[in-house]
Amino acid sequence: MLAKMGALLELKADLPKSAILHDLKQLTTARQALIKDRTAAKARLATATHSLLRQQIKRRLKQIDSDLAQVAATIDAIIAADKDLAARAEILTSIPGIAKVTACAILTDMPELGELSGKQAAKLAGLAPMSRQSGKWQGKERIQGGRASVRRAIYLPAVVATRFNPDMKLEYEQLISTGKCKKLAITAVMRKLIVTANALLRDQRKWTQNPT
Asked: From CA 172, how far away is CA 109, in angstroms rounded?
């Protein structure tokens, strides 16, 4: 049935991820796991009273920090060694609010970015508002589907962008002033970040502030 649908709609098959992107995905996943381990270890250290346990937890925290540094260095080296990835990462990190970690997450989880329309990019990230309606009933619009990993990766950068990215800050404040709740306003900023990143990668240019 899926094959027939593809033939009728003349759908094009997506290219599989490259070996480099698979390596980066493994490393970013490992980094996330180490961060969770560090958070858990710090929580245990805060409640541990026995000297032996405290010594062991402190050693574990040092090891986690060392492992995180090695993973980060490896990720940086892989991206720097690939001309295309390095150029794409440089474009992404030119956007205020997006740092190297977020850029890597976007590159690995959404490699299509730069080859899509703005609406397609927002929808692929699960940030396009979807209407809920049945007959004459009209429900509220909400975001759904898409790639949750991308949304998780850009949530905190969107929060940072509302303070340090002039364009995003202006949009956020305008939404708040019209009565939108902070959650919806942040979601709109997340969507704009993805759409902006897509446009910059498509045009192969760095971010510049919109003239006021």
From this structure: 26
DSSP type of residue 197? H
| CA separation, residue 186 to residues 33, 62, 111, 146, 158 (Å) | 26, 35, 23, 17, 7
Domain boundaries, the chain: 18-81, 86-128+146-212
Residue 181 in contact with residue 140, Cβ under 8 Å?
no
User: Which alpha helices (DSSP H) does the chain contain, by range?
Assistant: 2-9, 19-47, 51-81, 83-93, 100-109, 118-124, 148-164, 166-177, 182-203
Burial 86-107, CB ≥16 within 10 A → b, else e: eebbebbbebbbbeebbbbbbb
In the numeric block, which tokens belong to residue 124? Answer: 């692929």
**Cα 19 from chain centre:** 20
The structure tokens 């699960």 sit at 126
Q: How far apart are alpha carbons 198 and 212 in whole angstroms? A: 22
Burial level of 193, CB count in 10 A (0-12/13-18/19+)?
buried
The pLDDT tens digits of the residues spanning 54-101 come to 999 999 999 999 999 999 999 999 999 999 999 999 999 999 989 999
Residue 50 pLDDT > 60, yes or no? Answer: yes
Tokens of 75: 């990720």
